[in-house]
């Protein structure tokens, strides 16, 4: 089924490649005919003595070997190149198809935790598929060709001896089939477990600030390790299978050889076989056929792994979708008025079918009018957005758009006419222009670049973003970073609004979008979801939602006169200063604030600097260790595995020594056929018995090798996967700010690096040792038996094979470095897409994202093709040069024998030792790609180890905990700028003092540096100059872990993890929290009733990214997470921004009471000044400086910046 994704060119390439594999595979068995004749010639010269005729025959046979070398080299090179190109192209198509199938899925598909591993699936499984359908497929087909042609040759030469010898084949197949069946089943279970583990890692990396703030790295690693342990235990079940397969395969081949020579001599003695050459041809042919199963094992495993990986992808790809955004089906009217009517809507989320969110909601949204939905968190307001966007399907009821059920419209057309600004706006990696331009419709995208830029600027003016963008050094070409980390929350929301309105949609949905829209934009059907009533006062119709129903409707004034729920909430939001001075409207406030809020201090990135950093990072992401040093370093780290490595080494030495032993036995057996009488029969029996003894030795040795290789592989991948996550999580925040360290890229490395190292330190370790033992022992024996021929074949043959293999390793390294970086980039795109799938969907960006991903895949294919032209040359040489070595050996050896310098026995010992050694080396260099990847992977891991975080535990600070029980804070002349943003300082000469037990607040326009202060207090970063004191201790001298234990953080957009509600609340706690502690924290955060109403209460899963809950619900769970720690220092970054008014009042009271504790200091960052009115001290910030300080009343009396902000927010005015 994989090959359904190949096109005509791919099929043509595959046809030529596989035909070439058949030809090159058959070449080796055909040479047994030549070899048999050569043996007969050498045997004849020892008895007949006609040296001239002997050399003439040998020279003719030598030419045949040269012809075969040329043919196999050319065909092998072209065929391998074809299969690598076809494999890369087919895998690209399949990756793209898998990515497309995910984009076609309904939104609830992404609510499942497993979907977080989509980036890992498309990268890791894609790599496995590529290996299985490219080079490994070629090797498998070549092996099958070798297998069948070997037996055809054997049967054609002497059918009786061939049939007797072939008795080993059924046993080999039976063992192979049984082992492979169970191995595939185990591999599938291991892969699924690793995918679940990767979700944990990916969530942690993408929310690294939360992990650091709550000291949850260890907890995360333990959770990750639980999955790794499960995979480890499952994987250990492969050990006996690998031991059985490795040992019995070699045993059967050698035992079959013993049987063949024993029976061969009897047939020779009885006259059924004419000469020794016939026996050797049959024995070597059958042996080649049998050993081809062994040599095919890695290739077959790769093909099997590709099948298993494809099965995982097909599970997703086979899913049928009800709401396909790429489907052409559905109505696409030429015009749209925008009249919406919701009729008796009932709905429950697929993940919680028993909890009905909407219970008969009915509402009209007239065209061109503004309708607002207000109500408590979880009342169903945001659910309406999801249904209008057709992310979900209502249980019953209908939504009409211009009188037609929205289910009848084309999904993409519908979403392109309904634009959404979400509560937590998401921007994508790229420039500001690219982000806003993502909202352009198809007609606008066809416009010239200059016109598109003008449309972007116009949209930014309407969303009050143009001024701050223009102040940036690169303007609209400024990079925003991953998750728009280079911009403040207010800046992100204004750009998000610009992106939504740029296409002039007929319907606009504002889900808790607090930033304002230019009031001059009219003729939009607008739905506003809001908690703050001040943002909806001007709406044409306001609907109050409670328990999934509309309970009140009307204009602001009408609802106030009804004296119902809306009026009660409105009165709660009125803080009561009845200054008669005319106040600016909400719309005017945002226009005014934006004139000053985005100063040059909000400059976030210099694209040139980032580009250079990226180059430096790419060059530095390697410890520079050689393969040998990498292996020795990793060996030294696992002393508990030395016994198993000793077993592997001992087994490999026996296996490697088998080759020269075979050479000696075979040369002696050739001599047997020149003997007469009982002595010949006795020696034939003896040497056949020696082959059987060799078989028994390999049976036990290889069983230990197979068993122990899997054992050490499972242990090593477990340890290194765990260590990799530990190493990543300990890095400074600067590390995660770098574009190349996006969460998708790091998650991809967490998967691929340990897997590559595992292969090197288990199966490939044994392979390397086996080949080295073979090459060294064969060379020593060859030179010892005949130094002239030995030296010529070692340096004239074996050296060529080794040099060719080394060249391929170097070329593979360069190719892997390039493709590795590209795969990381594509994985980052996949992760970003999954994380922002609702934004992708609402903007109908599926086609755009798919094109970007397809282009990234094409770049990888181009790199692979370009690199393969050179990299495959030494590989083709190493796979065919053994024929040239054989030709050299026969030519020079025949000369030495003819001159009487060597005996026939002496020649064959030397000759066969070097031939076997060369074949072992050629086999080894067939694995260079995986060995190269392992070396690169090991160096990446060593490089991570070598990174010394500036902010971390050290021997000097690890026991340095904050002194005393108080929580005094101070900053002295603090300057700060982000390493990724070198243009200007974010904070300039910041100094302040906050006494223990005080409630302090930082306010100011977006981008002024408020949240940066929180980051410095949390010690995510250190100041460029100046210092921050906690109880008069410089926090840079304290243990970060012990310091952070004394504090809690509530972020503006708090992440939740795909575990239970309880696990999210107790995140990072150093003790097992009691049920009473958890419930009390929930009660303080006003989330207890909501949690108890859930089907599984505290044990309810939160879903991927906490998408099971609304923004307000997520925020309150995060507040509970902060309060359960009973911190000395409480940091609130817009802690109540997502709460409805009633919830806000209760939670604010809880926070106020927490702040009133004399042993606790509270630092709040706020846009809404009502939340910090009661603070003991308020610091007003602007342009990275503190410009005013005082209490609320003192600052009002100053009539400065704070006073202007209060007026703008109508903090001190009564309702009209």
Automatic annotation (TrEMBL):
GO BP annotation list: oligopeptide export from mitochondrion
Transmembrane segments: 12-35, 64-88, 137-157, 163-186, 241-262, 277-297, 642-666, 686-709, 767-785, 791-809, 872-892, 904-925
Membrane topology: Multi-pass membrane protein
Domain ABC transporter per the UniProt entry, residue ranges: 340-572, 969-1208
Subcellular location(s) per record: Membrane
Cellular component GO terms held in the UniProt record: mitochondrial inner membrane
Family per record: Belongs to the ABC transporter superfamily. ABCB family. Multidrug resistance exporter (TC 3.A.1.201) subfamily.
Designated name of the protein: ABC multidrug transporter atrC
């Amino acid at each position: 089924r994989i090959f359904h994704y190949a096109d005509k060119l791919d099929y043509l390439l595959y046809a030529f490649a596989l035909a070439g594999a058949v030809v090159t595979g058959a070449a080796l068995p055909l040479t047994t005919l030549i070899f048999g004749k050569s043996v007969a010639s050498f045997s004849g010269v020892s008895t007949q003595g006609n040296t001239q005729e002997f050399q003439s025959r040998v020279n003719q046979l030598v030419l045949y070997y040269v012809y075969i070398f040329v043919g196999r080299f050319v065909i092998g090179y072209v065929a391998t190149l074809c299969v690598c190109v076809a494999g890369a192209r087919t895998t690209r198509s399949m990756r793209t198809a898998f990515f497309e199938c995910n984009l076609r899925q309904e939104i609830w598909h992404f609510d499942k935790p497993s979907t977080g591993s989509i980036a890992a699936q498309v990268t890791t499984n894609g790599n496995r598929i590529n290996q299985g359908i490219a080079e490994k497929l070629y090797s498998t087909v070549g092996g099958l060709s070798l297998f069948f042609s070997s037996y055809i040759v054997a049967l054609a030469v002497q059918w009786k001896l061939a049939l007797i010898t072939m008795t080993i084949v059924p046993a080999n197949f039976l063992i192979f089939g049984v082992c492979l069946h169970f191995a595939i089943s185990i591999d599938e279970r291991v892969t699924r477990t690793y995918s679940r583990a990767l979700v944990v890692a990916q969530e942690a990396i993408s929310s690294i600030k939360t992990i650091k703030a709550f000291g949850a790295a260890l907890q995360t690693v333990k959770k990750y390790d639980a999955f790794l342990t499960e995979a480890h235990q499952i994987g250990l079940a492969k050990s006996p299978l690998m031991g059985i397969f490795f040992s019995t395969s070699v045993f059967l081949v050698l035992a079959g050889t013993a049987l063949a020579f024993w029976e061969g001599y009897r047939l020779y003695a009885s006259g059924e076989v004419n000469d020794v050459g016939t026996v050797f041809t049959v024995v070597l042919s059958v042996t080649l056929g049998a050993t081809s199963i062994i040599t095919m094992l890695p290739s077959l495993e790769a093909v099997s792994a590709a099948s298993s990986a494809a099965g995982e992808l097909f599970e997703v790809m086979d899913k049928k979708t009800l709401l396909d955004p790429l489907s052409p089906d559905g109505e696409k009217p030429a015009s749209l008025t925008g009249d919406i009517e919701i009729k008796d809507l009932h709905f429950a989320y697929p993940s919680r079918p028993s909890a009905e969110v909407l219970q008969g909601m009915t509402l009209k949204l007239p065209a061109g009018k503004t309708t607002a939905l207000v109500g408590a968190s979880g009342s169903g307001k945001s659910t309406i957005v999801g249904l209008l966007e057709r992310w979900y399907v209502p249980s019953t009821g209908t939504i009409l758009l211009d009188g037609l059920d929205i289910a009848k419209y084309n999904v993409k057309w519908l979403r392109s006419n309904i634009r959404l600004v979400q509560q937590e706006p998401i921007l994508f990696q790229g420039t500001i222009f690219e982000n806003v331009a993502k909202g352009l419709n198809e007609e606008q995208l066809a416009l010239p670049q200059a016109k598109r830029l003008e449309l972007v600027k116009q949209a930014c003016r309407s969303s009050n973003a143009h001024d701050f963008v223009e102040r940036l050094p690169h303007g609209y070409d400024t990079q925003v970073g991953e998750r728009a980390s280079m911009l403040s929350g207010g800046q992100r929301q204004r750009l998000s609004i610009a992106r939504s309105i740029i296409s002039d949609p007929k319907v606009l949905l504002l889900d808790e979008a607090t930033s304002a829209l230019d009031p001059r934009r009219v003729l939009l059907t607008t739905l506003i979801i809001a908690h703050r009533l001040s943002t909806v006062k001007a709406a044409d119709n306001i609907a109050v939602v409670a328990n999934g129903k509309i309970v009140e409707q009307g204009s602001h004034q009408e609802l106030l006169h009804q004296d119902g729920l809306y009026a009660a909430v409105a009165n709660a939001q009125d803080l009561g200063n009845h200054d008669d001075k005319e106040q600016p409207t909400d719309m005017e406030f945002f226009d005014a604030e934006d004139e000053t809020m985005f100063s040059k201090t909000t400059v976030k990135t210099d694209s040139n600097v980032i580009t250079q950093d990226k180059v430096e990072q790419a060059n530095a992401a390697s410890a520079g260790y050689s393969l040998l040093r990498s292996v020795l370093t990793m060996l030294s780290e696992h002393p508990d595995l030395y016994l198993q490595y000793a077993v592997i080494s001992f087994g490999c030495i026996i296996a490697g020594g088998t080759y020269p032993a075979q050479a000696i036995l075979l040369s002696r057996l050739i001599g047997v056929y020149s003997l007469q009488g009982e002595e010949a029969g006795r020696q034939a029996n003896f040497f056949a018995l020696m082959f059987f003894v060799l078989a028994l030795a390999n049976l036990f040795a290889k069983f230990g090798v197979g068993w122990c290789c899997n054992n050490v592989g499972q242990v090593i991948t477990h340890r290194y996967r765990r260590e990799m996550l530990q190493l990543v999580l300990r890095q400074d925040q600067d590390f995660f700010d770098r574009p190349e360290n996006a969460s998708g890229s790091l998650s991809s490395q967490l998967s691929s690096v340990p897997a590559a190292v595992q292969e090197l330190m288990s199966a490939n370790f044994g392979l390397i040792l086996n080949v080295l033992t073979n090459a060294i022992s064969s060379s020593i024996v060859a030179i010892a038996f005949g130094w002239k021929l030995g030296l010529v074949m070692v340096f004239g043959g074996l050296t060529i094979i080794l040099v060719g293999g080394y060249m391929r390793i170097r070329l593979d390294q360069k190719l892997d470095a390039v493709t590795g970086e590209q795969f990381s980039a594509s994985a980052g795109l996949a992760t970003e897409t999954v994380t922002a799938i609702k934004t992708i969907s609402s903007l109908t960006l599926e086609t755009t994202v798919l094109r970007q991903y397809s282009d990234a895949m094409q770049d990888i294919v181009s790199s692979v093709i370009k690199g393969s032209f050179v990299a495959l040359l030494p590989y083709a040489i190493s796979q065919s040069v053994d024929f040239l070595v054989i030709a050299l050996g026969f030519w020079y050896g025949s000369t030495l024998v003819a001159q009487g310098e060597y005996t026939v026995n002496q020649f064959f010992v030397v000759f066969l030792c070097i031939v076997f050694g060369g074949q072992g080396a050629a086999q080894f260099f067939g694995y260079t790609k995986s060995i190269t990847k392992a070396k690169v992977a090991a160096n990446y891991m060593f490089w991570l180890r070598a990174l010394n975080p500036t902010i971390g535990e050290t021997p000097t600070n690890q026991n340095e905990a904050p002194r005393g029980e108080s929580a005094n804070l101070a900053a002295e002349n603090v300057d700060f700028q982000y390493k990724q943003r070198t243009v200007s300082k974010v904070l300039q000469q910041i100094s302040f003092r906050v006494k223990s037990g005080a409630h302090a607040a930082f306010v100011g326009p977006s981008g002024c540096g408020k949240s940066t202060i929180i980051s410095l207090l949390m010690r995510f970063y250190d100041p460029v100059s100046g210092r921050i004191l906690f109880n008069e201790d410089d926090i840079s001298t304290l243990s970060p872990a012990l310091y952070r234990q004394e504090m809690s953080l509530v972020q503006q957009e708090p992440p939740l993890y795909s575990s239970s509600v309880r696990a999210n609340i107790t995140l990072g706690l150093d003790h097992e929290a009691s049920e009473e502690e958890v419930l009390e924290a929930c009660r303080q955060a006003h989330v207890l009733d909501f949690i108890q109403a859930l089907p599984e209460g505290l044990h309810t899963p939160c879903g991927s990214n906490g998408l099971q809950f609304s923004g307000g619900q997520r925020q309150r769970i995060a507040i509970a997470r902060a309060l359960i720690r009973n911190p000395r220092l409480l940091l609130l970054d817009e802690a109540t921004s997502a709460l409805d008014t009633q919830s806000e009042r209760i939670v604010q009271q809880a926070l106020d009471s927490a702040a009133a504790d004399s042993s606790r200091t509270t630092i709040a960052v706020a846009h809404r000044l009502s939340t910090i009115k009661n603070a003991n001290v308020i610091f007003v910030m602007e342009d990275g400086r503190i410009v005013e300080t005082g209490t609320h009343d003192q600052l009002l009396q100053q009539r400065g910046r704070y006073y202007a902000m209060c007026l703008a927010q109508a903090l001190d005015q009564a309702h009209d």
